[in-house]
Write a structure and sequence with these properties.
The complex is a heterodimer of chains A (319) and B (65). Chain A has one domain. Chain A has helices at residues 2-16, 24-54, 59-66, 73-82, 92-101, 106-118, 121-131, 133-156, 165-169, 182-217, 224-227, 234-242, 249-261, 266-278, 281-287, 293-318. With 319 residues, chain A is mainly alpha-helical. Chain B is globular, with a radius of gyration of 11 Å. Helix content of chain B is 34%, strand content 22%. Chain B has one domain (7-59). The chains are: A mainly alpha (319), B alpha+beta (65).
């Protein structure tokens, strides 16, 4: 399929638009057409499949599946459930309270809270489209390991006192769940796929356009000295810059593709992306309502360490 | 009929509110939509994911989104 797509991009660029092969402009335009079609198609398909899975998972079920689990098993299940289930940052508080209220241990709750934004299908499918399945798999597996270990560490620190007292006093009544037919699920998935793809499309196109310009014009070793493997500070600095930033993966990954092709180390780029999507200032402010400052700082600190270590690790493995 | 949209005001909550209003308009019924933005009130309902839609006090929420 990629060959057809490349022929199509070539045909548009060199035949229809009449641009010169090997010229900076021709190579930029060709890159833009090829990448944007490929990424959009892949995104729509993967988001559709993940949305189908999501119709089987409700927060009430997640709560039931992880409540009463022991450390380790519980963290693994919570982190895996976090993959197909995104929540917008304003749901962080009700989710947190719902988990704690039904007796889910703190560490397991955090495994879910970390995995959910950190590992998402938009980022995974874009990495798949632009870097290949190996990098997408590395992203998912390392995200899981970060969520599991960070959750276990937070659980071991016994920080139950660092949760705001009112959280323990909340009594929730269980909501009844409606059952769905397969037709409902397909409609949901179709709508999700359309909505999400259309929503992130402008970011993808802008990202790829910026990427295309750099691709065509910047020299190949442009970033080697600043963000290459030989600068040991590149990873922590990238993560520090990334943590407060609030952006979606859609606009970042196309730029990441170009940055890496111009010499940025892959591990550094992955760590930067994880920091941007895994943690954000709005999420921290919202979480502060249910956890005390000390736990919030520990949470952010552990994630910073975990993501930085992952970045170094991949710079070594992939380097 | 009592229709409520629960959510603390993020873009998804606003979109659900707009969709509900549109749906009411399309089906030619006259009923107001109540916005519940207070976090305590939302939690009290047992809601774990916002936005949530309640009709006559019953949750219509089905899945993560």
């Amino acid at each position: 399929m990629q060959d057809y797509l490349q022929s199509f991009a070539d045909w548009i660029t060199y035949t229809v638009l009449g641009l010169v092969r090997e010229s900076p402009l021709g190579s930029s335009v060709n890159f833009f057409i090829y990448d944007s079609i490929k990424v959009t198609l892949m995104l729509a398909v993967i988001v559709f499949c993940v949305a189908i899975i999501r119709t089987f998972i409700t927060p009430q079920k997640v709560k039931r599946w992880v409540a009463g689990r022991t450390e380790g098993v519980g963290n693994i299940i919570a982190a895996m459930l976090g993959i197909p289930t995104p929540f917008c940052s304003c749901s962080a508080v009700p989710l947190f309270i719902g988990f704690v209220e039904s007796g889910v241990p703190l560490g397991i709750t955090f495994s879910f809270l970390i995995a959910s934004p950190l590992i998402n299908e938009v980022a995974a499918s874009m990495l798949f489209a632009m870097f290949g399945w190996q990098i997408a798999l590395i992203y998912i597996v390392s995200g899981l390991i970060i969520a599991i270990t960070a959750g276990i560490v937070i659980g071991r620190l016994h920080l139950e006192n660092e949760v705001e007292e009112f959280v323990y006093k909340v009594k929730l009544h269980d909501l009844k769940e409606k059952s769905m037919t397969w037709n409902d699920r397909l409609i949901f998935a179709k709508n999700e796929s359309r909505d999400i793809t259309l929503k992130v499309l402008p970011y993808i196109l802008i990202g790829i356009a910026i990427g295309a310009v750099i691709h065509g014009y910047a020299p190949a070793d442009f970033l080697v000295n600043i963000a290459g493997k030989n600068n040991p500070l590149a990873v922590p600095i990238a993560v520090l810059i990334g943590i407060p930033l609030y952006s979606n993966a859609a606009g970042m990954i196309p730029i990441m593709e170009v940055l890496t092709s111009k010499g940025m180390a892959m591990g550094t780029a992955l760590a930067f992306m994880m920091a941007v999507i895994g943690l954000s200032l709005p999420e921290m402010i919202i979480l502060r309502k249910v956890i005390k400052l000390k736990l919030l700082i520990i949470f952010v600190g552990i994630l910073f360490l975990a993501i930085t270590l992952t970045g170094y690790l991949f710079n070594i493995i992939l380097g | 009929m009592k229709i409520e949209v629960l959510g603390s005001g993020c873009s998804k909550c606003k979109r659900l509110f707009a969709n509900v209003e549109q749906a009411i308009k399309d089906s030619n019924i006259t009923v107001g939509v109540i916005k519940v933005e207070d976090l305590d009130a939302i939690i009290e309902r047992g809601v774990m994911l916002t936005p949530a839609l309640f009709i006559n006090g019953k949750s219509c929420q089905r899945y993560f989104r």
